[in-house]
Amino acid sequence: MKTAILGGGLSGLTLARLLQEQGEEVVVLEAEQEYGGLCRSKTDQGFTFDTGGSHIIFSRDDEVLTFMRRMIAGNEQRNNRTTKIFYKQQFVKYPFENGLSDLPPEDRFFCINEFIKTLIAVEKGEIPAPVNFREWIYYTFGKGIAECYMIPYNEKIWKYPTDKMSLHWVDGRIPRPPVEDVIKAAIGIDTDGYTHQSVFSYPRDGGINALVRAIARPIEPCIKTGFRVTSITKSGKIWQISNGDECIQADQCICTMPVQHLLACLDDVSRDVKTAADALKYNSLVCVNIGINGSVPGISWLYVPDPAVGRTNRISFPSGYSGHVAPHGCSAILAEITHQHGDDVAYLTDGELIHEVVDMLQSMQVLHKDQIVYTSVERQPFAYVVYDLDYQKNIAIVKEYCNEIGIPLVGRFAQFEYLNMDGCIRSVMDFLATKELQ
Ligand SMILES: Cc1cc2nc3c(=O)[nH]c(=O)nc-3n(C[C@H](O)[C@H](O)[C@H](O)COP(=O)(O)OP(=O)(O)OC[C@H]3O[C@@H](n4cnc5c(N)ncnc54)[C@H](O)[C@@H]3O)c2cc1C
After folding, report:
1. Has residue 114 got a pLDDT over 90?
2. What is the mean pLDDT of the chain?
3. Quick one: which of 50, 51, 90 has its CA closest to 309?
4. Pocket test for ligand 1, best of 17, 257, 407 (most atoms within 8 A of CB)
5. Nearest 10 degrees: CA dihedral of 25, 28, 33, 38?
6. For 254-292, how does the pLDDT look when each residue is reduced to its tens digit (9 = 90+)?
7. Which residue ranges have their beta carbon within 6 Å of ligand 1?
8. 69-76: long-range contacts, CB 8 A cutoff, minimum separation 24
9. Residue 10 Cα: closest atom of ligand 1
């Protein structure tokens, strides 16, 4: 049995490795010159930056976490999370509800008062159950936390109105601390939220790419990089997968690349399926990488909800995850800006983006321009799945079609789900377990 895996990101590589361990012949077809997808990293002038945004290794899934940690054994650094939110020129503890005591007193009162009023109103059945993400935020956190942090941050990262987003995905993805913790936080008793992430791992050398490299090591001869799949046909029981120059034949074809790219390779996709796929929403990402002489705040990463501060939604400090990702005496800063295809950010030059981020960091007193020794910009067309209100209807149509033609979808943009690395590896493991049963 020969299996062709379309896409050589974390999902495709993990799938290839585990299939090969089961004795199957595999080939991974990856469009870019380097495999790794969103989990690539680039080392330049002594700085290593993750090119798909700053990544850390964490999970609630013990089996998957053990797998990831085993892959980087000997190259693992464990870190305590110290994450903050930049709010009114102050660093507020993350999650916001656990950081209420860091707020100015009026905002603290606004947040805790509205939180408790909402709890009581919900308890009495005075507020109807939420039907979209925005309503869910108000219903869960009250007007204060909603308007000070949750709505501005979420609209900034998703680049989509929260009242046009579905809420089917929020459980487990958005921290929801116990009521007592929010009250404790407001009166200044220390509490921690989102605790499965409070200790995380990062490769000491090589950035997050070290994880995919370790996974890919035994299957490297089976990876064909620079192979952009452009057409997929079936002749009898054999799949023919081509990049326009070369054709690969396989008994089985599994897609881990974006499902939109898959459909573009197939003939005879019905108008309904195409319409559903075209309606799936996602956003893109720009990463501005900055290397400086000197140190940075002792923060793992910083959320920036206020649009007035800048377009950046998150700033990470990767040299805090591993001392090996910046030259001695230097620090690394990675600013992430999500955007939509074809919007104003897409047309900004690298120079303009760097200029804007540097000005913002200087105004936050994170750096002084004179300290800068390195800058670069990375762009990712597919960064986050955006769950709009029609998402579930549209993805069901697309998945049913792929199921009918016999191409399984595995991974973040193939399944078109908001999967982190652990979710991708879980999908691979579950896919293989189901396959074994058949
Ligand atoms: C900003 C950001 C931060 C993140 N941080 C974390 C984190 O801290 N922790 C965590 O666990 N997860 C994190 N993630 C999620 C993580 O990056 C993804 O879950 C994971 O990398 C997805 O892997 P994948 O293989 O499914 O998809 P991808 O990495 O997108 O891989 C798909 C591959 O398909 C290839 N491809 C596309 N078209 C074709 C074609 N026509 N032919 C051949 N190949 C093609 C692409 O080049 C790519 O290599 C983050 C994501 C983002 C955007």
Report:
1. yes
2. 96
3. 90
4. 257
5. -140
6. 999 999 999 999 999 999 999 999 999 999 999 999 999
7. 6-12, 29-32, 37-39, 52-53, 55-56, 228-229, 256-258, 261, 285, 336, 382-384, 411-413, 419-422, 424
8. 69/201, 71/211, 71/214, 71/215, 72/201, 72/203, 72/210, 72/211, 72/214, 75/203, 75/204, 75/205, 75/206, 75/210, 75/214, 76/201, 76/202, 76/203, 76/204
9. 25
Q: Give the tens place of pLDDT for each residue, 139-191.
A: 999 999 999 999 999 999 999 999 999 999 998 778 777 899 999 999 999 88
Q: What is the pLDDT of residue 195?
A: 81
Position 437 confidence tier, pLDDT thresholds 50, 70, 90: low
Q: Please name which of 428, 405, 401, 27 lies closest in space to residue 250, comparing C-alpha atoms.
A: 27
* Ligand 1 closest atom vs CA 421: 11
Under 8 Å between Cβ of 222 and 27: yes
Pocket-testing residue among 418, 420, 427, ligand 1, by greatest number of atoms within 8 A of Cβ: 420
Q: Which of 54, 421, 422, 425 to mutate to test the pocket of ligand 1 (most atoms within 8 A of CB)?
A: 421
pLDDT of 353-394, one tens digit each? Answer: 999 999 999 999 999 999 999 999 999 999 999 999 999 999
Among protein residues, the one whose CA lies closest to atom 6 of ligand 1: 55
Banded model confidence at residue 435, pLDDT cuts 50, 70, 90: confident
